[in-house]
Design brief:
This is CBPC1 carboxypeptidase. Keywords: Carboxypeptidase, Hydrolase, Protease. By secondary structure, this protein is mostly helical. Helix content is 58%, strand content 0%.
């Protein structure tokens, strides 16, 4: 009976019929629905209430009729509903198959030359909003061929921050998938992110924050991390962090500074990254900046992240430590004149004597990242081989504190532990054979005192 239900029923008829003038009628119905959604809270509730088919009708219309008329109005309706009604409606849009439809629309709209900027902004904003609700959006984007559309838009519109921001938000969602991160890295996304985050500038800090989050997600891939190290970007990240530390005297941009540290943390997960961090004097830089942040409690996240990075990158040494790095000396009683121990004692103080073998299988791991799809395996339960299930092995072993020979001196205090008590016949003064009682469930021996 309401105006909204009447308009939705007209859309359903448009989807089923094939009339010459349907495009004009569809535009009219779309403008009316958009006006009602923007102006009336009641209409938004009707569109998104439980049992309503409003979102389904709009999605089916976009899927069927998008090529025949401009679907900007329908996407604007979805955009307004999602932005006003929050994440709960984003989950509804995902369950109705909205992710797949929006990716197909993005692919269709990208074929126009030049693409409609307003339409691209709305599509990317919607995808960025519903992306965290859809765990398989990265795989869907790669299958549909929409993975590089957002990347190409950023490459050709670096100065158009209104378009670049939602595109970066979508790339951040895509980069959580390791296969997508490797694919985007091969297409130059790492270099593109460094063009956005540097040099230092307090303009467009929201764009800077999203770019840093995207870069941190990309650098979790070892392939992208090596690419960043080879191009000297570790030194660039440290320089950017120092610049923000010096200029952010009122601590208004703590999230940006933490984003830079997250990028450094990601790139130092590989051996080459840790070496580049040490060579760039990163240990001293993070130590000095952390000392200056200790007085401000709101900067504790920066100190904690810096501590994690320094602990991870600090050179490791085996025991015993004869160098100045340790406050204790563990002198061995006998040290052969030649051997591995003597070689360790003869090393200079600044040499890392622990061989870092963490990245020896990088190539194999990179191939497995590309060939293996991890999205479908996240929800599957697997057996942990590290958990011991043998009860006998889990029981603690009870060992005597003294040998048996030393404990024999206490036998006369506890005769019940060693002597074999039997029932004696008082007449014959000999042990009687035990006869179990029929009423008893089992044999019971009742010890009695011996008779002289």
């Amino acid at each position: 009976s309401s105006r909204t239900i009447s308009l939705l029923s007209q859309l359903e008829k448009i989807n089923l019929d094939s009339v010459v003038g349907e495009s004009d009628h569809a535009r009219y119905v779309t403008s009316k629905i958009l006006h009602l959604v923007q102006s009336q809270e009641k209409t938004r509730k009707e569109m998104t209430s439980k049992g309503s088919t409003g979102i389904e009708v709009i999605l089916s219309t976009l899927e069927v009729k998008f090529s025949n008329f401009c679907g900007y109005g329908f996407i604007a309706v979805l955009h307004f509903i999602i932005m006003k009604c929050g994440g709960r409606r984003a989950s509804v849009l995902v369950t109705k198959g909205g992710t797949q439809i929006l990716l197909q629309l993005l692919l269709t709209a990208s074929k126009d030359s030049p693409p409609n900027e307003e339409l691209m902004v709305l599509l990317h904003t919607l995808l960025a909003k519903i992306g965290p609700k859809d765990k398989k959006i990265g795989m869907k984007a790669r299958i549909n061929g929409a993975l590089n559309i957002s990347l190409n838009l950023v490459k050709h519109n670096l100065q158009n921050h209104r378009l670049v921001l939602p595109c970066l938000q979508v790339l951040r969602v895509y980069s959580t998938n390791s296969v997508n991160a490797v694919s985007l890295g091969k297409n130059g996304v790492v270099e593109l992110m460094f063009k956005i985050i540097g040099p230092f500038s307090k303009r467009n800090t929201s764009l800077m924050k999203v770019a840093l989050d995207t870069l941190a997600a990309l650098l979790k891939s070892k392939t992208n991390a090596r690419r960043a190290v080879d191009r000297g970007y570790v030194q660039v990240l440290l320089t950017i962090y120092v610049d923000w530390h010096r200029h952010d005297s009122r601590h208004r941009y703590m999230l940006i500074r933490k984003g830079v540290l997250q990028c450094i943390k990601s790139v130092t997960s590989i051996k080459l990254g840790r070496k580049a961090f040490i060579d760039a004097n990163g240990m001293k830089i993070l130590y000095n900046t952390s000392q200056e942040c200790l007085a401000v409690r709101t900067l504790d996240p920066l100190v904690n992240t810096s501590s994690l990075i320094m602990r991870k990158c600090f050179p490791k040494n085996r025991l015993p430590l004869p160098t100045i790095k340790s406050a204790f000396h563990f002198q061995l009683p006998v040290i052969p004149a030649s051997g591995p121990v003597a070689q360790l004692y003869n090393l200079p103080p600044d040499v890392d004597d622990v061989v870092d073998e963490s990245d020896d299988n990088d190539d194999a791991e990179t191939e497995s990242e590309i060939e293996t799809e991890i999205d479908d395996d996240k929800d599957q339960h697997f057996k942990n081989d590290d958990i011991e299930t043998d009860i006998n092995k889990l029981k603690p072993r009870q060992e005597l504190g003294r040998p048996i020979e030393e404990l024999k001196m206490y036998e006369h205090f506890f005769p019940e532990l060693s002597e074999n008590f039997q029932e004696w016949d008082l007449v014959s003064k000999e042990p009687k054979p035990f006869v179990p009682d029929a009423n008893l469930s089992g044999p019971i021996v009742v010890p009695t005192a011996s008779v002289e």
